[in-house]
Fold this protein.
Amino acid sequence: MPATPAAANMLTDADSAALLKRAVAQVNTLVLGKAQEVRLAFVALLSDGHLLIEDLPGLGKTTLAHALAATLGLGFQRVQFTSDLLPSDIVGVSIFDAQVRRFEFHPGPIFAHVLLADEINRAPPRTQSALLEAMAEHQVTIDGHTHPLPDPFFVIATQNPVDLAGTYPLPDSQLDRFLLRLTLGYPGEEAERALLSGTDRKDLIAQAIPVLGATDVLALRSAVSRVHASDSLIGYVQALVTRSRQHPGVRVGLSPRAGIALLRAARAYALLLGRKHVLPDDVQALFAAVAAHRLVADIDAGSHALLAKSILHAVPVD
């Protein structure tokens, strides 16, 4: 069970590490054969970022999101994005109350610790944009009034490939709000056999006991900020960002915000591996997931993932 608020304030680094290890292990029992992808999902959470999961239907995107929510023990809401979804269906709406003669705000599902935006690219751009302020500022503004969101606030969005019918590409400004984008791919043979012969994932997730709570997540995020990054490591991150702006085939390279996101994610990755300092290996393991969806490529430059890999190979580690 997650620690109580009073106990959580007294958690040592060892306690936090043990809780985190249990949480990761539980999600791995619910999402089989995807240990690295599960680790990246926790990186997004611990880095105070948001997660975009992109893949074909039926490969476990929503299962991973539900498994994370069940393990975190936080307030959870799911919104199925469709072509007729309105911004007010997400953020809420002000309704006039005749008895008190004033507008009363009725919050939407975005007012939760964890929001699953399922198939986000099936909604038109106007509805997608309803998430921008929330993801960047952890607040929403409606009718001139600002409403803070719960802390922590974590968006897990799933999307189908943009070449599928009925999808709208996410604008670059929204893609940049996601710390990480990952794909799951088909399961390995052993994992798929376990899925076919075992208990339904929905039933297992329903039985999952929360391992973390809100105070635990905030304590872990604080621990991430204390993970050491040397001057040479920061220089390596800066060199990658600079190279992305000079690389042939890239029209728009990584912004300073992307560099900050990469460094923050590397700190979280190191913490997940039980270290208090960042290694170049951590940056390399994360670079494609943090950078690929932020690159604006020329038409004939190939996939964003290949561009990210090419940039990574072009920058030596001192």
About this structure: The two ends are 44 Å apart (CA to CA).
